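I am still getting used to C-alpha cells and would like to learn alongside you. To get us started, please write out a protein record for me. Start from the sequence, derive the C-alpha cells from it, and show both lines together. Once you have written the record down, we can walk along the chain together:
***
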Amino acid sequence: MPPDCLFCRIVSGELPSAQVYSDESIVAIRDISPQAPTHLLLIPRKHIASAREVGPEDKGLISDVCALAAELAMRHGVAEDGYRLVINVGRNGGQTVDHLHVHMLGGRPMAWPPG
C-alpha cells in the first residue's frame, strides 16, 4: 500500500468515508462530490494504480466489481432505469486518484458523449 494513496487509506479504515458496502476485496463509498443522485465509488482493496495496470491475475476482481455494481444498482433503485459505470484512466481521462476505482452513477438521464 503506497502511504500517500487516498483510496488505500480509505479502504483500510484510516480515513473516514460514507461506506455503503465492504467485503474482503472491494469497498463501495458515496462520492464526496456526486455528479448524479446516486454516485458511488467501487474501490478494490488491492492497490492497482490504474486500469492500464490491470493484469490477467485481476480478471476475477474486475468481474466482482461489475457484479457488485449490478447489486448496488438494485439496492439503490437505479437498476431498472439504468446507470453508468465509469473508469477514468490517466490524467487526460480524468483520473485524479492513482488507485483503480469505478464510478457508478444513476438516478438521472446520462448525456452522450460524456465529458
